[in-house]
Design a protein that fits this description.
13 helices; 358 residues; alpha/beta; three-stranded mixed sheet; four-stranded mixed sheet; single chain; 3 domains; 58% helix; CBS-domain
């Protein structure tokens, strides 16, 4: 995600912080300064928010580590003002696995809330209404209540919340996954309208949450619909068979000529019949600025190129393009390059199938 910086790496998963989160912390500081008129109030407020988001990160790790047990990898977790977002390479489509992964996040918040309650009991910490008010700064009792609130909110049976995924998984036992997703997404958008109305009447923050829920539900529904169109198709059916390649010893001038001669902008780099890299247009432009058109392709080609077999499910190729964001995939048969796939020609393939079904 753009405007994000890596904080640290835990259990093989990178944690990023988005620029808007830093702006959010500044805003929190201003709010608590206006409330308490002291640096102590500012530090207390920001400390509470940072601790709260640590709980959010643990929530996302609940999802990530549980998904890993089923063989699904998490690329990274990004902190945003609206919460933490875990980006998975793929997610389980088996309903039972999806339910377990979805519930793992809220389960972490339940454990945190229970642990805080034990701490309150053991230390005889008084709990009253004033301590539960967030404007009063850091409070163990308030942190416990916020974790409970996170559990309740995330278990609402509507996308993109965890409860929506559980709802979709339960529906998937009785109907196709794309139909189940459509129902769960509609539930999410209905909830978004309700939040939006409350936001207009009471709290503008709910309008932001409503927008997040609405677009999250629409995105999930659209993605599943696309995958349903690819189901049962292979990479061979959608791959480009007329394309240009480069060798490591070609010059950037040859890449320019190939680009101007057609519509291709990214070129597989082939050495002895096997793909060994890719020269993207970004790499080409960088090379021209640094060394000029006589520079060898090998100096600027990316060493890794995504690959799949010609009989691989097209849905798998689509997942690779979405999750890893390569410019193209080299399609091979018997260890020979027979085609390439990019996101544009997959979308064209979907458009043609949609038109034929109309």
């Amino acid at each position: 995600m753009k405007w994000s910086w890596k904080l640290l790496r835990v259990a093989g998963i990178d944690i990023y912080i988005h620029a808007t989160f830093l702006i959010f912390l500044v805003w929190i500081g201003i709010v608590f300064w206006n409330i308490g008129q002291s640096w102590q109030a500012v530090i207390s407020g920001i400390s509470f928010v940072i601790t709260l988001f640590a709980c959010v990160v643990l929530h996302e790790f609940g999802h990530a580590l549980t998904a890993r047990r089923f063989g699904y990898k998490t690329r990274h977790i990004t902190l945003l003002p609206i919460g933490g977002v875990a980006t998975f390479e793929t997610l389980p489509e088996d309903p039972k696995q999806e339910i377990i992964v979805a519930l793992a996040g809220p389960a972490v918040n339940v454990v945190i809330a229970f642990g805080l309650w034990i701490w309150i009991m053991l230390n005889d910490i008084p709990v009253n209404i004033e301590q539960l008010k967030l404007e009063n700064g850091f409070s163990i009792a308030a942190l416990m209540m916020v974790n409970i609130s996170l559990v309740i909110f995330n278990l609402l049976p509507a996308f993109p919340m965890d409860g929506g995924r559980v709802f979709r998984a339960l529906l998937s036992f009785r109907m196709p996954r794309d139909k189940a997703t459509e129902i769960a997404a509609r539930a999410g958008q209905t909830l978004a309208l309700f939040f939006g109305l409350l936001g207009l009447l009471y709290n503008p923050l709910l309008v932001i949450i409503a927008a997040f829920v609405w677009f999250g539900a629409a995105s999930e529904s659209g993605m599943v619909t696309l995958k349903a169109m690819l189901s049962g198709q292979t990479a061979k059916q959608a791959m480009l068979t007329e394309f240009s390649t480069l060798s490591p010893h070609d010059t950037l001038r040859q890449a320019i000529q190939l680009t101007l001669a057609g519509t291709q902008t990214d070129f597989p780099v082939i050495d002895h019949g096997k793909p060994v890299g890719i020269l993207t247009q970004i790499d080409l432009l960088r090379g021209l600025k640094e060394q000029g058109e006589l520079a060898p392709v090998n100096d600027y080609a990316r060493r890794e190129i995504a690959q799949c077999a010609s009989d691989a499910p097209l849905e798998k190729a689509f997942d690779m393009l979405i999750s890893h964001q390569p410019n193209l995939i080299a399609v091979q048969k018997n260890n020979q390059l027979v085609g390439v796939i990019n996101l544009q020609n997959i979308m064209e393939f979907i458009n043609f199938r949609t038109a034929l079904k109309a």
